[in-house]
User: Fold this.
Amino acid sequence: MSGPATVIPLPQSVLLPVDGLSERFPVRRVYCVGRNYADHAIEMGHDPSREPPFFFQKNADNLLPPGREFPYPPLSSDVHFEVECVVALKSGGQDIAIENTLDCVYGYAVGVDFTRRDLQAEAKKLGRPWEVAKAFEYSAPVSAIVPASLLGHPAAGRIWLELNGKRLQDGDLNQMIWKVPEIIAELSKLFILAPGDVIMTGTPAGVGAVRRGDHINCGIDGVAQLSINVA
Ligand code: MN
Assistant:
């Protein structure tokens, strides 16, 4: 493949492994859903019956492929884990009808939305954007993607996270306020979705802080597992 000459080297595409295949999944954008499980919204001090979920973004190159250590980020002393179901799109569009949304899904993975909670709290207080809290380097470890052609489209299943062997998050995909079809339909009202887009669908209750040397094991039963060392 050859394109026009570039004045600096082309940035590398972010490629995620796909379960059972040598071909990789190229990432375009990373969308995230905030407060998509009622019990987590409540633990963060919000009322899910009055405040619907919402979106924010990370950068594609914030994704950390499986098998690599999560380097504890600078300028924070309160980095929290949030285990999430990750949806990878093979097609997209604008104003996608809800009955067509699952046709856009290539597959699913489990991931962690690491958050510099102290910087997020400051941003919330000052009415500032969340990027410094959410879109930092390596802030989204993710497992290999499991194709929906093998898996189907899981609407239920235990989603859990263990820190140093202790289970701290234990929810079910069926607790999502916005289900995956609604998330895709809502996002496609705001953005033009495209192949390679990845969506982190929010976290159940039980989030907490990590320290250097910690070990995380997390998963979605019947979908994927991921283990992460905090370096
Ligand atoms: Mn999250």
